[in-house]
Amino acid sequence: MLDLSSSSSMPRSAAAAVKTYSPFVGFCFIINYIVGTGFLGIPYVFWNTGVIAGVATLVVISMAIAIPAIWTLEVMARAQAIDDVDSSRVQADSEMKAVFRIETDRHFEVSELCRIFLGRVGGAVYLVLILIYLFIGQWLTGPVAGTAWSSNLPLNFGTFRQCSQADFNGVLHPSDGCWNSYALCILFFAIIVVPLSCLDLKEQEIVQVTLSITRFVVITSIIIYSIVAEVKGYKGHESVDPPPNSTVKEHVLGFKMNGFLATLPVVIYAQMLHVAIPSLVQPINDKRHLGRLFWLIFATTSVIYGVLGVTAAVYLKYSVNEQCTLNWADTTSSGHSMLLRVYSYFVVIFPSLDVLSAYPLGAIIMANMVEYLFTGNPRVQSGRFFVTVNRFVWATLPLICSVYLSDLVELDKFAGLPAFCAAFIFPAFLQWRSVKMCQNRFGTSITPYTSRWVSGFGVVGVVFAFGVVITIATFVSFFLPHSLA
What we know:
Number of domains: 1
Number of strands: 0
Structural class: mainly alpha
Helix content: 55-70%
């Protein structure tokens, strides 16, 4: 067999040159990437699916989406073994075993993994689908910041006017003075996130950890607020009369297929990270327990989403907004205590602050994929100038688009289709092909992340079928009414 041990294949100088961080910092980076703006719609779809049914859907989806994430780690380790042989980093020795691992000085984007195990066509198809998904995902963050800031900042001077939520309903972009304020807020957002996108992940360590802690604090405060307000019967938010023949019990214990079909893309989008896994795990200095780290991450996000969805949905009931934080705009007006008004402003503005941490990660991942597309060789080390310009371009273009198009409801739906391919279908193909290739080439395919519970071909088939079914179900939901009430 072949000796693929890390000690013989990674030069100390190369390893030392790579900036790394601890598993805890890696946990914060990955949580920041997952818990972006996806959680905003959880209470809304829970209420309109059935709260208990929504929790069950979240649990099933989270387990289904965690398994392909573990497969991605396995595939990266197998690709490293193949790369060691093909690049002649190790010498053949029939008496030594193959050792699969993820190195710090070698970066595999998922598009490259597809090219290795699925061929050029597979890699090209994946790259196109994911670039579309990532670009639309980045595009969506612009309106999140622009809408929140232009609606809450007193921009009333010259040709500028403070916006209201009505300015953004059913239009491509706001008009007149509101559009000027909206565009100015997008510019403010760009001034913050574009420079961050040009930095390496290690250089963002303090920012990412701080925003991760802030995110947990805000989400926890919304949960506590909803519980206390529901127990005390506080009705500070605008109430909406229930539809005829609709009861709270029905929304908590019942099940609505229309809402369920809308829940699938929302929950999957909220847990989606597969395309970012190589970029996020490469700098982690201790990769021995990455599998456990990912299970912990998905368990953490599932608990956060579940508790938030249940408490906010039960408290807000029929008035729950598609973006749940907008419900706190009702308590920013005079007539409420100053403390409540300050808190409510912070909750409303929070999503735009939240994407400050996720946006640079998305821009870096897009730039890495485009760099691989142009170089075609992962061993080509681009200069710092090219890397910076590449990241600048892909951090700027989505924000320019968001200035001229802020109504992205339908685009968000279509962005889900390539996301399902990235989360379920392509990982299943990669797992199957990488196992077959390594067994044929090395006589084994077992990596440090392989588990008999999730790595077998039976599980691969189930997840693949699951991905196909929910893709079809989501396509069907395109033809259903947008409102679930």
